[in-house]
Amino acid sequence: MSNRRDFMGMALGGFTALGGIAALYAMKRTWDPLPSVKAAGFTTIDLSAAEENVLNVEKWRGKPIFVLKKPKKDKPDPRDVVIGDAHFSITVGLCTHLGCIPAYFPGEEKFKCACHGGEYDVNAKNIFGPPPRPLDIPPFKIDGTKLVLGETGPEYEKMLADGLTLKV
Ligand code: FES
Fold first, then answer.
1. Which residues line ligand 1 (CB under 6 A)?
2. pLDDT the model gives residue 38
């Protein structure tokens, strides 16, 4: 009898642990849908699985980072991060007015900030309301299909030199 109870306990425990792992996995997928590795202030994100017009939010040095693969029909922009033939809008997800986190509306291809009504286009350029400048671009380096946040590659250096972003 006690053996049977032990077995039931173990089976139930195993089931609970599996359920917990499944729940954690589901949460991880929601928070962090693109494969990424974090180490010593750098975050490496593999962009090969990114879907068009779907906003992914990464975390880098405590800041939300917006990773958005622009729809192919959209015009190229000097702020684009180009990987292969894909164009990405990569920005720090903090409104340049007073720092709220804007939301992305894929149907309109706009970021909107609920705090004071600021709006940004798909390139994260301010197009309406109080934000004084586009969303900032974090330092990045392109490594094949991966993006390394926190490293400074030539593409980012050029954007800085051209005045397309402030240094964060
Ligand atoms: S903080 Fe975004 S519009 Fe004011």
1. 95, 97-98, 100, 113, 115-116, 118, 129-131
2. 80
Ranges 31-35, 101-105, 119-123, 151-155: which has the least confidence: 31-35
Q: Is the pLDDT of residue 71 over 50?
A: yes
Q: Ligand 1: distance of its center to the CA of 134 in Å? A: 12
Q: 165's torsion region: left (phi>0), alpha (psi -120 to 50) or beta?
A: beta
Q: Whose CA is nearest to atom 4 of ligand 1?
A: 116
- Together in a domain, 143 and 94: yes
**CA 112 – ligand 1 centroid, Å:** 9
Residue 166 lies in a domain: no
Give yes or no: residues 20 and 46 share one domain: no
pLDDT tens-place string over residues 1-21: 445 555 445 544 554 555 554
Query: Comparing 35 with 12, which gets the higher pLDDT?
Result: 35
| 17 shares a domain with 72 | no
Range of the domain at 19: 1-31
